[in-house]
Amino acid sequence: MIVWLWLACASTDPDGGKSTVASDPDPTPVVEESELGETTIEREVVVDRRQLKRMTVAQARDSMQRISGGIVWGDEDESKWDAYADTLGVADYQLRVESDRSPSVMFQKFLDDAATATCRGWLEAADSSFYTIDVPDSTEREDVRSNVVGLRWQIQGKPKDASAGIIDDYEALFFKAHQRTDSVEAAWQTVCVAMFTHPDFFMY
Amino acid sequence: MRGSRLILGAIFLLGASDPWVDASTQDLHGYVRALSLDLRGNVPTAAELEEVEEAAEVTESLLESWLYSEEFEEQVIAQHREMFWNELEVNLLPKRKLSKRDGIYFNNNRSRYTRDVAHSHCGDFEADVDEMNRPLSWLTNDDGSISEGYVIVSPYWDPDNPIEVCALDAQLNLVSDTGVDCTTYAGYEEPTCGCGPDLKWCLDGGTETLIEQALSKDLTERVRAMLQSDGSYADLLSSSTMYLNGASAHFFRYLTPYDDEVYERPVPLEDLPELDFADETWTPVTLGSEHDGVLTAPGWLLRHQTNRGRANRFYGAFLCNEFIVPETGVGALSGTEAPTPNLIRRPGCLGCHARLEPWAAYWGRWTEAAMIYRPQESYPAFSEDCYDCATTGVGCTDFCEDYYLVETSHTDQRPYLGWYMTYAFLLDGKEENPDLGPLGWVETAQSDGSLDECATRNTARWLLNWEEDESVIEEWVSELGDSFSYRDLVRRLVTSPEYWAGVP
Questions:
Q1: Closest chain B residue to the Cα of A48, Cα to Cα
Q2: Which residue in chain A is spatially nearest to B89 when comparing CA positions?
Q3: What does the domain layout of chain B look like in residue ranges?
Q4: Which of A46, A152, B83, B260 lies at a C-alpha separation of 20 to 30 Å from B166?
Q5: Domain ranges, ordered by start, for chain A
Q6: A75-97 pLDDT, tens per residue?
Q7: Within an 8 Å CB–CB cutoff, is residue B464 touching chain A?
Q8: Smallest CA–CA separation between A43 and chain B, in Å?
Q9: DSSP string, A66-121
Q10: Do B472 and A50 touch (CB under 8 A)?
Q11: Where are the beta strands (DSSP E) in B303-431?
Q12: What pTM does this model have?
């Protein structure tokens, strides 16, 4: 009883009756900028042969449409790739005379939006080329791997090689998405977006 | 020595052989994809990919079909837009521009002459007019302006959709009440001049944009023509053919007379093609010998408005060079003397201007912030009359004051009194530059090989995105020889081991 009384008094402000907060024995650490250090973001290896480059906005737009059988991100009158051209750093030759070709966060954000819309339209389209397997809603591992290989060939232009390590990753992604959504279509949508937003698609 | 070899080896292992750094080591699928994206701006179709897989190579016929495709033309045009910067937004003819108030078109700039008060409008009611759209009655407002009402007109830019236009701006008179020609600049202040039949002597914001686009696209249509003829790449800088569509043909036929200080018809009126304003096809027009390819195209002259700017863009885009401030900075002027206006000699400026001034003079017979050619016959290099008025104190004519050096602010200008201004300070044979035109510079750059070398360098940067190898550039230039076609250049580069080293 005495212990309970002591605890009650100890946690009460005698002036206002407000509860008090005990001092934190482990205060929040202070991060100093100097701890982050410095590094160069420039590539150090000099290559006097062809180097990878990011697709232009027009190339990304046209390639996604070709691959998906004509799905336009936006509407028939105007692709959103064109509507957002200024934001994406496309040269207008007045205020900007050089297009931004870096795989910037802004590019990847819009690529993600475009991929989401394109994959949805591609999955839902009549006579879609999305599935290269006979039973689209199959969750048999063999079918899933086969369709992953087919999609990778279509989207990223990679050889139909089922033994490539990344096929395992896309397969795992499919089953994880399927497990969480209980939807085969949502799982394929996830894989499709992953392939379009992978550098294997937009760097060449 | 051994250590440096190890380092080089490590770099090779870490970077050069890594397809994420050295894309020339990609497999056949990577190659065909890059080739298709570079040459056509799109990935290969499924059928093309299967064709390549079956052949285990990119066949010559497939490559040739891509190099001769319309998509290839568009890619080359896109590359050249980065050189031309051909996009106009210049407020073409503000005095002829119609704007809208309360949904009714009117010429705001002319309202001080038509309605006696600046910015006044005709009011939102149908006008009482005669057959020439001249108002027969009107309201007089408190501020002294008049409101005459509107008439319905089918505009030339969209005849199927009639619009409401203030009657005074829609007048059809060819000649004003005071005898002034309404189709010329002189008609601007005439209250009885209007926009003429179908409003064809005026423009609105939308038509202005279409005209500006047409003038800009003339340059890229010249690139397309160069590719389609498979002629020499240098033709781009010497050809005397320009391309007009409905919008630019209308501009030169009806609108350029309204500002003859800035615009002139590229060919006589009778040689202009008769096209509907909405006609988007390109009609070739042969220009006079004063024209030097894209470098004197209206779209180039209006985009790069000063002769120094024109020279600077050519120097950067076609000769792969730029003017760079020395590391020590631009030196400050010393002494108390007024600095010389001769930038070729002025300390701090001469580092760039000793070269830039004679180069800018190649455009010396083309007006700045305009597109007019001033020929030797009408504007001789030296004028006795202008020299006399400048040195004897007799009043100079407007012609002398506008185009010739007749006043000096520095002793360095005295030797050039009476000279057409563009010749001032040119020495050592450079005084010929204005009469040679930009082609004079092009020919010099062709003869010393710098033009071909830069074309190769530019194309390699586009296709390879690489750290340049000078020896490889030299090898390509030497292989291609004189008068190569742009398609030859691209073919040479995309079939080089630097682009793709072959099946790994």
A1: B467
A2: A94
A3: 19-84, 206-301
A4: B260
A5: 57-202
A6: 888 999 999 999 999 999 999 99
A7: yes
A8: 9
A9: HHTTS--SB-SS-BHHHHTTTTTT---SSS--S---S--HHHHHHHHHHHHHHHHH
A10: no
A11: none
A12: 0.89
